[in-house]
Amino acid sequence: MNELIGNIFTALVIDQNDTHYFLQKNGVTFRLAKEEGEHQLGEAVEGFGYLNQKQETVMTTAVPESRVDNYAFGTVTGVRRDLGVFVDIGLKDKDIVVSMDDLSTMKELWPKKEDRLMVSLRVDEKGRIWGQLADETYFKALSQPGTDELKNKNITGTVFRLKMAGTYVLTDDLKLGFIHPSERYREPRLGEQIAGRVIGIRPDGILNLSLKPRAHEAISDDAAMLLTFLERSADGKIPFTDKSDPEEIKQYFGISKGQFKRALGSLLKAKKVKQEKGFTILLEETKE
Prior knowledge:
The chain is mainly β. The chain has helices at about 135-140, 220-230, 245-255, 255-270; strands at about 10-15, 20-25, 30-35, 45-50, 55-60, 70-80, 85-90, 95-100, 115-125, 130-135, 155-165, 165-170, 175-180, 195-200, 205-210, 235-240, 275, 280.
């Protein structure tokens, strides 16, 4: 059965009930929802096989792009710290897990809900499907070299590799980008969708990117620090406002209350945060 799971194959319709057709291939019976289309007994149907959440063998004619030996982006739907991250590849009744063994040991850099991961599928000896992250070789083959006219242009893209030297990105127009630690306020997560600008093009065509604003767009370092604290917080808020105790501010942030108020004021003016019931709260449109 394992050679069928996670792959495309053709099976014969052998039976049906009110909601499903039953198809057989190599002695294995698969369920196919009737809502996907009409078929006749004895008809050969091509589809994708998998085990659903109930561990039933299922076929779908809505074949996902992520398959064994075939990579595509999927959307993160959830995280389990003791297992890994769940990814929607387009199956109606099953998300695929990328194992924690394939993720960073720094769990704060794991993908979050709505992030994107480029995955293919692998099937273990028990027939379970796992997501397999694309490696750097795949992204290099997928991408196109950048050219000089891109310098200083704004770009968007998806983080696909985290390294000590910096962060690698696939831009939405299929260029490779690199973010040096000096060109960011915080390290992006794996799968995070970022917006930045091109500050140079390497001889190999990889774009050097910055996540910091241009000089005329820049907020103060103190304001950037507060944003980082808010983004790193579990629920997008911190228990400090412009009414907070100066000593507590100094102990927590390492800046004076005056510096804190100026930084907070700039964020309030830019509509990046709000104050409510003793908390400073990151506004939804600011969250990544």
